[in-house]
Structure formats: C-alpha cells, structure tokens
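Risk register update: the risk of archive-format incompatibility is retired. Evidence:
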Amino acid sequence: MRNLDKYKGVIPAFYACYDKEGNISAEGVQALTKYFVEKGVKGVYVNGSSGECIYQSVEDKKLILEQVMKAAEGKLTVIAHVACNNTKDSMELARHAESLGVDAIAAIPPIYFRLPEHAIAQYWNDISAAAPNTDFIIYNIPQLAGVALTLNLFAEMRKNPRVIGVKNSSMPVQDIQMFLAEAGEDYIVFNGPDEQFISGRVMGAEGAIGGTYGAMPELFLKMDQYVKAGDLKKAKEIQYAVDEIIYKMCSAHGNMYGVIKAILKKKKWDFPLQKKKSSHRCSQQLGFYFIPDEVKLTTKSCHYRWLGHFTSPPTIYKKFSHCEHLPVFGVSLFLF
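Archived output:
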C-alpha cells in the first residue's frame, strides 16, 4: 500500500503574484510561500484555478513553480497543476515540475471541446508519461471544465500506476464517497469546495485543497483538527463562520480572488497581486474598500461582527459555544 500521508491535510491553492507592470513577481511568490510555511499548512497547490492558470503563459507558470520550490525548502508538499489547452505545453510543464522535485502533478481535462473519455484518458496519460517518477492527481471540476470524471474514466485512469487520486471540486459530496468506494485505500481524494470542507472530510476526503484557505488558514486548520478529533459540533460552527466570510467576500465589488489578494495585501504585501489585463481584474483598491465599515452576520449557531475599513485592518469578533483565540486576517478572531 502506498504511503499518502504527505497529502493528508490542509493544502491552500496558491495565488498568482504580479509586480506593478503585470509580470510575475518572484519576490511575491516567495513571500506567499513563506507565509504558508509559517501558517503550518500541509502544502500548496500551485498554478491551479486560484493561481489564474488559464491566463498565464508556460514561462509564467515555470517561474512561479521555481520560486515556490525555492522558498518552500522542502517544508511543504507541492502539487503542481500543469494542464494547458494543448498536450505539448502540458507535457513540457510536467517535465519541468518533475525536474524541480515536486511531490505530484495534477491536471484538469481538456476544456472547450467536450472530448470523449478515451481522448481525455490519453491526454492525462501523455502528461503523466512526461513525468514518469511523479505522482499524478486528476482534477475534477466539471462546473468549469465542462466534463466530469465518471467512474468508468476513473477506472481507466487507475491503470496508470502514477495516478494516486482525485482533487474533487464537484459540489456533490457523494462523488467523494463514490471515488473512494471504487478506488479503495490506496488512493486519496481531496475535498475541493471550501464551503463544505467538513462534509467532504466526513465522507472520506483525507486531504483538502481550497481557494479561500489563504485568507484564513487558521480556521481551516482548526476545522481539520476538530474533524480528526471527532468533534463535529465545533467543526460545524467554524464551517458556518467560514461560509459566511466566503459569502461576504463574494459579495464585494471585485472577483473573490481579487478580494482575497486585498486581504493578503493588508496583511503583508504592498504591491499588486492581480494581473492588470486579466478578464476578472478588480480596481486597485480591492476588498475592504468595497466592504462596509461594519458588517453584522448572524447564523443559527453563531454571530460575529466584522469591523473593517480599507485604511485599517479589520477586526472580527465571533461568538461560539466555546472559548478560543485565533488570529485571522492578521488580527484576532475570538471564539467564546
């Protein structure tokens, strides 16, 4: 049986970092990598959806991964997403990732044209063959890719000994259960949708990869801790809080990832993290500029006040049935 422990835990999706001219910032990539090391997450998922892979060149992606590997210094599990809109570039990125010593590569299926399953399998296997000594993870995100990973396709892919599992970003948690039931304990499934972190974990996902983890890694790490301890009540309370934060980030003026980058800028960075000509670029004054000075959100299990303004860091106070202190967004989250 394979040892998959290095993939079990909280793995944030890595964000693209740009300089003021819209080029990849090596300094920014290294700083973000070190931030994740300091937070104690299991690893990073590089050049995926949250990393704006669709908008980047092959050279951009290479530079980002090189800087991540340099700054991580072996302290993080690194999964490199290498899929492009053609097999040639995807294989080039796979070879490059293996040369850097990443733990695994991953790939979405071909997008735009809905190819038959045998063609999707060939695409993935060609990419995997370009990195013959590296684990391969299937990225299932049908709502964006346009095609879903079926059980038949998954069975075909398991003939490839380098395939170790699935990053499952489809919304039904039943998909996690079905993939695990078919594959068995020698494979791992990662929960993708952040809004159902604990649901995916309870259904059997032993790892989790998410796009909002970077804004609040402390909360996802705490949820993971409670799930492992079997304390689902406390895990659920934090999940509800996380979901409300995600909803609020999504309700801001810009794209959610632009808002997350604004949060990170307020914590650490003073240069742009958003590509200037990206189709989902927001105003340079992102995030808190568009969030009211005071936001009150209430759910059945909890209540918190978000006090923030673009000129000063926000403060979040949250009431739970237990008392704990967690730093979030560079300030304090009090769990009572």
